[in-house]
Amino acid sequence: MSEPAFDREWRLVDLLDTAACEKVAAALAQLLGGDLAIIDALGDPVCGSLHPAARREPLVLELEPIGYLGSATAGADALRAARDLLLALLRCQLRCTMAVALHQAAAAGDFVSLAREQTRLAEAEARCAWLSEELDDRVRKQVHELGERQQALYLADKLSSVGQLAAGMAHEINNPLAFVRSNFSTFERYLGQIAQLKTQLANAEVAWPALDLDFVLEDSRDLLHDSAQGLERIARIIGELKEFSNVDRAVEEFSDLNECLHQAAVIVEKQLPFGVAIRFRLLPLPGIICLPGHLKQLFFNVIGNAAQAIRDAGRPGEITLSSEVDGKNIVIRIQDDGVGMTAEQIEHAFEPFYTQRPVGSGIGLGLATARSVVLAHGGRIALDSRLGAGTTVTLFFPLPQ
Amino acid sequence: MPEIDARRLTFKIVYYGPEQGGKTSNLLRLRELLPPERAGEMMALDTRGGSTLLFDLLPFGFRSESGLLVKFRLFSVPGKTAYDATRKAVLARADGVVFVADADRSLEAINRESFRRLADDCAEVGLAFKYLPLVVQFNKCDLPNAVPEAETRARWSAAPWPLVFAAANGGRGVTQTLEALLRSLHRRFDGECALRARHALDEDTFVVRAMGGG
Ligand SMILES: Nc1nc2c(ncn2[C@@H]2O[C@H](COP(=O)(O)OP(=O)(O)O)[C@@H](O)[C@H]2O)c(=O)[nH]1
Ligand SMILES: [Mg+2]
């Protein structure tokens, strides 16, 4: 089994990535009005640095601490309250993380029964929505207890994306499943019709047209062809999901991002329609330690989106790929002059399964995946788009200091 | 096979059985019956109506003289047949199973069906049912329509598994069930995990410590 098992012992870093951790720590430090560090079970800092004289509070989800909250300045009660707040957040995150991992395991093991489970997924979605409500509530209460008026140190957006992921998956898979199933039952009926010929072999010339077997043969071919396509589509969805959940498992290498970008562009270029061109404006870059496999996939997705945007505009266009070093970052820009996006599309662009294209034309994991890949590199992704004028996706990868 | 490293040994125990049989009730009562410092918080992924949607999880454990943290993670599966794939995924990697049957006479066929499915599911997720530490609990024995103990014992006399009669709601039979399973676990994994050899945990010590004594 390649997916992380839902029943593994989740570590602190599995539940809160560095970016989230920093956000939470900053908010908690503000509430406590002092220093604050989060360290993992082995005592290594996850964010902030622990003062040698710091007070520590353990973060216990099951039996043993998965990490500690430490502060040299905060009073014992305040620090414990902050710890409780962080624990409430981790619990919610744990539930969703486990729920999603379990869904993936269930889907991988038996995805034909997914159709039957659609209602369950809908329930799970409601559940996650409720979780984030509950989380909101708890955060509000705790913040109040700490005597401050600050909100906003939680991952509600992340939680709602989880529900969306589950619901989107069910929706996208259900459609092809339904027609494959219906095709199969028609085909079964046709087999019965063909079998009847056996009883009338002596009279085959009459029986053949009477049983309408010309039509049966032709329609069967269509049915099987369509079904194969439906299965292909399901396989593609599963593939995209895999990719989406794969970000934390890959080999790090010292690579030149220009090269990754180039390789991805070459693949897209092969599929470009007439009238869409790719232009390169790449400046030399220092090599960095990265996950080249994921980055190529990321570039491939984003360039693919750009090509689609030009296609959607129904006129010739150009994709410009540029790269440069700007002080502390490598900056990569993927720009198109295609249809552009509405304000609403921009707002939801990074949510999994958000797509405005018709069902079956890819499931909208492109930018969501892109974002998680960039985050895994400690980087950042920005989106700038104007309706009718085009879209620019800018990726920032920090250079080592 | 339980997960073991230098500091920690983790057993996964799954409560399996028909919907509404009392799996969640077992875990809830155990949380109250075990010493509070030995058990973690119970995590329930259920619907608002209270039926288990994905699973429940209750962790508990103890530290052996040798310094090993022996941890048990009790899961319960969702009951509804519509959740087949989820149930299998929860069952996967179990080291032991408690089958919670509903003693109500009218539910005998449903119990049988669920037990048969347990065997099938085990095969599908790669557990050797024959060697699986298993305890069968007949729950809701407090109800007037429950099949009497003697009758059930006679019917299951050929079965190799310990039978426990329980009323999980009120807590009766809940710890006996777990104890019986812990004994089977010890017998099955003592060798592989060097429980006696390296950690001075013979069967009785293992059970007593796990249940909060010692
Ligand atoms: N009378 C009686 N009711 C019980 C007993 N155990 C559980 N119940 C009830 O049976 C229902 C289902 O229990 P639950 O633990 O949720 O079952 P699960 O679906 O197997 O998790 C609940 O309403 C319980 O209160 C018992 O021993 N006696
Ligand atoms: Mg339950």
Key features of this structure:
heterodimer; A: 401 residues; alpha+beta; four-stranded antiparallel sheet; B: 214 residues; binds guanosine-5'-diphosphate; binds magnesium ion
Give me the Rg of chain B, rounded.
17 Å
Q: How much helicity do the residues of chain B have? A: 25-40%
Please identify the oligomeric state. Answer: heterodimer
The SSE order of chain B reads: EEHEEEHEHEHEHHH
SSE string of chain A: HHEEEEHHHHHEHEEHEEHHEE
- What percent of residues of chain B are in strands? 15-25%
CATH topology of chain B: Rossmann fold
Largest sheet of chain A: 5 strands, mixed
Task: Describe the structure in your own words.
The complex is a heterodimer of chains A (401) and B (214). Chain A is α+β, with helices and mostly antiparallel strands. Helices cover 54% and strands 17% of the residues of chain A. In chain A, strand 8 (317-326) and strand 9 form a beta hairpin. The longest helix of chain A is centred in the middle third of the chain and has 41 residues, at 156-196. Chain A is flat, with a radius of gyration of 26 Å. Chain B is α/β, with parallel strands linked by helices and 214 residues long. Chain B has helices at residues 23-33, 84-91, 108-125, 149-155, 174-193, 195-199, 203-210, and strands spanning 3-4, 8-16, 43-46, 52-63, 69-76, 96-102, 134-139, 163-165. In chain B, helix 2 crosses helix 3 (108-125) and helix 5 (174-193) crosses helix 7 (203-210). The mean pLDDT of chain B is 91. Classes of the chains: A alpha+beta (401), B alpha/beta (214). Chains A and B meet through helix 3 and helix 4 of A and strand 2, strand 4, strand 5 and helix 2 of B. The complex binds guanosine-5'-diphosphate and magnesium ion (MG). Guanosine-5'-diphosphate binds at residues 17, 19-25, 51-52, 76, 79, 100, 139-140, 142-143, 167-169 of chain B. Magnesium ion binds next to helix 1 of chain B.
